[in-house]
Amino acid sequence: MRRGALSVCVLVLFAVLAAPQATARRLTGSIAASTARESALVAAVNSVRTLHLLPKLRVDLRLTRAARFHSRDMLLRDYFAHGDLLARMARFHVRGHLFEENLAYSSGVMSARTAVADWLASPEHRTILLDPTLRRIGVATPIGAFGGFARATVVTADFAR
What we know:
- The chain is globular, with a radius of gyration of 18 Å.
- The longest helix is centred in the middle third of the chain and has 17 residues, at about 60-75.
- It is α+β, with helices and mostly antiparallel strands.
- It has helices spanning about 5-20, 20-30, 35-50, 60-75, 85-90, 110-120, 125-130, and strands spanning about 60, 100-105, 135-140, 145, 150-160.
- The protein is built from 7 helices and 5 strands; from the N terminus they run αααβααβααβββ.
- Strands 1, 2, 3, 4 and 5 form a 5-stranded mixed sheet that branches.
């Protein structure tokens, strides 16, 4: 390969990697299967809802994509905030009349029990967890460098009616 052709290839590769769409695709990741931590979180949420005689939530793949995107974005950009939930739901084509979100993070690996217990201890988060009109859930529990910690967990739980 000629030297000039190589620099053009590198330049094109840089442009592709720098494109916002490439970032969005990289952040959304595969949706094929829930991780063990994600499954445990959904089970813990549904266990609490069952104890309160509420219907279990079913996993929604679009909500899961939105939750994964948000948690990974927070890890990547080192922030902790809900952001524009409605815009995110539209971006991932989530249908519904009501959307809610609970976030949590830990300086280490956060268990599903801990996340749910923390949410139950907070009146605002508890209201969301125990909302009888919610029917669907999508969660993300990635671990990575965050807030000065090498292995932090950043949890997003998105809910829809």
